[in-house]
Specification:
The chain has helices at residues 2-17, 43-46, 52-57, 76-88, 100-105, 130-141, 159-164, 168-186, 193-202, 226-240, 257-275; strands at 33-40, 62-68, 111-114, 145-149, 189-191. It has 276 residues and is α/β, with parallel strands linked by helices. β3, α6 (130-141) and β4 (145-149) form a beta-alpha-beta unit. Helix content is 46%, strand content 10%. α4 (76-88) packs across α6, α9 (193-202) packs across α11 (257-275) and α10 (226-240) packs across α11. A five-stranded parallel beta sheet has the order 2-1-3-4-5, with helices on both faces. It starts with a helix and ends with a helix.
């Protein structure tokens, strides 16, 4: 019996020494801050998939649950039309494998984001009455905070700008006014992706050259390239996790360390400007 007790005691001493058993000094790892986000948008929300998960994970103490109801080129009008069809026939999804309501109810989302299609983003009349109806529907069926992603202005030489007859800066100002009007009407917060893209263009180290592919933020005149997608992900992280963007450690291989640092700083400035 004494020999058995001695063996057990020796095992416990060795286990404690090598950290095989928990001690009072060994505390459980703190729970990660988990944020659940559902996007109802188009390709300008879909672009988050490239870097947003890595941006969040790189902080070490944050976790993302990410869902989407995105359709390329989809406007408020089209999304609301789909929802109306499903209200009339709840058993038949209008576009996705599941209904909008089923996706909305699938998680206890912290945030649900909405946005206008980029080609109509600068025309507030195109938002209505569809955006109002979407917001009413979301408020009735979810406790999530509804947020509006402010999309961004096109590349200065994009042909649609030429056809509309105004420069890129004016597109930015018009779409900003439109998103702000909707946000104010419903007391919603705006995710300032468009502000960040514009600020990055206007404060680019060495100046912004729209003909230089290393300086541009859109890959095809409208959709974000790697620089823009990283900037977008940092803006979303900083705002929706309510954490400093400086916590982000992830750097895409397409960006230099200096450029990634610049974009993180721009993201933080865009977020802070909306708080003032």
């Amino acid at each position: 019996m004494k020999k058995k007790i001695f063996v057990v005691s020796l095992f416990l001493i060795l286990a404690l020494s090598f950290g095989l058993l928990p001690t009072q000094a060994q505390e459980a790892a703190p729970a990660k801050k988990t944020v659940k986000i559902l996007t109802i948008g188009n390709s300008f929300a879909e672009s988050l998939h490239r870097y947003f998960p890595q941006v969040v994970a790189s902080t070490g103490d944050c976790e993302l649950v990410f869902g989407c109801l995105n359709i390329g080129g989809c406007s408020f009008e089209r999304h609301w039309g789909n929802i109306e069809k499903e209200i009339a026939d709840p058993t038949t999804p209008a576009y996705f494998k599941e209904t909008y309501l089923s996706k909305i109810k699938s998680q206890d989302w912290d945030f649900i984001s909405i946005q206008q299609v980029s080609g109509k983003s600068w025309i507030y009349d195109s938002y209505q009455p569809f955006a109002d109806k979407m917001i009413e529907f979301l408020k009735a069926n979810s406790n999530a905070e509804i947020v509006i992603q402010q999309t961004w202005a096109y590349h200065p030489t994009e042909k649609r700008l030429v056809g509309w007859g105004f420069p890129q800066r004016e597109m930015y100002e018009k779409l900003t006014d439109a998103y702000n009007t909707l946000a104010k009407k419903h007391s919603l917060r705006v995710i300032p992706t468009g502000d960040a893209v514009q600020l990055a263009r206007e404060t680019e180290p060495g100046g912004y050259d729209p003909a230089d592919p290393t300086k541009i933020f859109t890959s095809d005149g409208a959709h974000l390239n790697a620089r823009g997608q990283y900037l977008q992900a940092c803006v979303w992280f900083g705002m929706l996790f309510d954490e400093p963007v400086s916590k982000v450690k992830f750097q895409p291989k397409e960006l230099t360390a200096e450029d990634a640092a610049f974009l993180r700083e721009v993201a933080q400035k865009a977020i802070d400007a909306r708080k003032n």
